[in-house]
Amino acid sequence: MDFLLNFIYEYGLIAMFFLILIEYACFPVSSEIVLPFSGAVASIQHVSFFVIIIVSVVAGLIGTSFCYAVGRFGGVPLIETIKRKFPSSQKGLDNSFEKFNKYGSVAVCVGRVIPICRTYIAFVAGAVKQPYSVFVTSSGIGITVWNIILIGLGYTLRENWKVVGTYYEEYKTIVIPLLILGVVVLLFKITPLKRLLPKKEESND
Predict the structure, then answer these.
(1) Poorest-pLDDT segment among 14-23, 55-64, 76-85
(2) Predicted TM-score of the model (pTM)
(3) Nearest 5 degrees, angle CA 159-CA 165-CA 166?
(4) Greater confidence, 104 or 53?
(5) What domain range includes position 144?
(6) Do the domain assignments include residue 162?
């Protein structure tokens, strides 16, 4: 992890963009570390908060679109293959499928602030062929909220950015529900409910 932090500090926005992109593409990079540190470095180097948020959201959308594309072109068979080859992923994928089938785009948006679910929800959205425009909109809202909070804390705390990860781990049972509530409220204010929930089959009676 020290290598990644040094990489960000040395190369600034370019490194931040790259690492945030691969984190959202499901590579093993912790957003709870990368995002606050990126905010701290941006603040120290006098990079505008608005600029770092735009860069991070664009990187996040590109990264998660990669996962969406893998799910869309590989389909459900690919998801089943992943579960067979990586048994530890089965619970997360099954849970993501369940949430998506029940809540549709709301699950895609809210899933951005839920551990494990945020890793798999893009694969699921692609596998069930959710329209890409809907996926990007829902993802964009969740990604923006998550990034603003973590980067904003790092931007404010600067050299003390590490406390973000410490407090997150200690109080995540409180923080995550509050984040979910905030994202849901924002989502419903921006987009009509009927466009977010999965469509039910019409009765032929």
Answers:
(1) 76-85
(2) 0.79
(3) 95
(4) 53
(5) 2-193
(6) yes
